Amino acid sequence: MNNKTLLCFDYGEKRIGVAVGQTVTRTATALETINVVDKKPDWKAISEIIYEWNPDQFVVGHPLTLEGNRQKMTDLAEKFSRQLHHRYNISVDLVSEQLSSYEARRELKSTRKLDPTSARLILETWFSENTNNKCRQNDGNKQN
């Protein structure tokens, strides 16, 4: 299978964590934090990352409660994923991000680099759920 590059976003009301991964190695690396100002993502910063990494697919954390119910951030993350798809015409997969921030805090033992580390953990979840290294070609949004 050809190697595909994935960019993962952990969307938040104030910050967006970003990670990158490769389907052949099934590895993910935390990249950076992008600010959200006045409820708007820094699209210029996002575009720069996209142009640098030239991803084949996006993954966005899908925040649900521990019981699997929707919450305020669920709608915001879904809106962000639709905006990504519309702006860049690259498919987006939503993947559960339950406890990703908790795990990132535990791993880092601080809040420094928390958002990109959460994005890395979300992307690792995507890899574990997609064991055949499948990567969809620009087929629109898919929700898990």
Short recap of the structure:
This protein is α/β, with parallel strands linked by helices. The protein has one domain: YqgF/RNase H-like domain (Nucleotidyltransferase, domain 5, 2-Layer Sandwich). Helices cover 37% and strands 29% of the residues.
Low-confidence stretches: 135-144
| Radius of gyration based on Cα positions | 14 Å
CATH architecture field:
2-Layer Sandwich
Strand order of the largest sheet: 4-3-2-1-5-6-7
On the 0-100 scale, what is the average pLDDT? Answer: 84
How many domain units?
Answer: 1
Task: Tell me the total number of β-strands.
Answer: 7
What does this structure look like?
By secondary structure, the protein is α/β, with parallel strands linked by helices. It has one domain (5-143): Nucleotidyltransferase, domain 5 (2-Layer Sandwich). 37% of the residues lie in helices and 29% in strands. It has helices at 43-53, 72-88, 100-108, 114-129, and strands at 5-11, 15-22, 27-37, 40-41, 57-62, 92-96, 141-143. A 7-stranded mixed β-sheet has the order 4-3-2-1-5-6-7, with helices on both faces. β3 (27-37) and β4 form a beta hairpin. The two termini are 23 Å apart. The model is unreliable at 135-144 (pLDDT under 50).
